Amino acid sequence: METLVQSTLAAPEGDISFFALFWQAHFVVKVVMIGLLAASVWCWAIIGEKVILMGHTRRQMTREETMLW
Question: What angle do CA 37, 53, 57 make, to 5 degrees?
Answer without folding.
Answer: 165
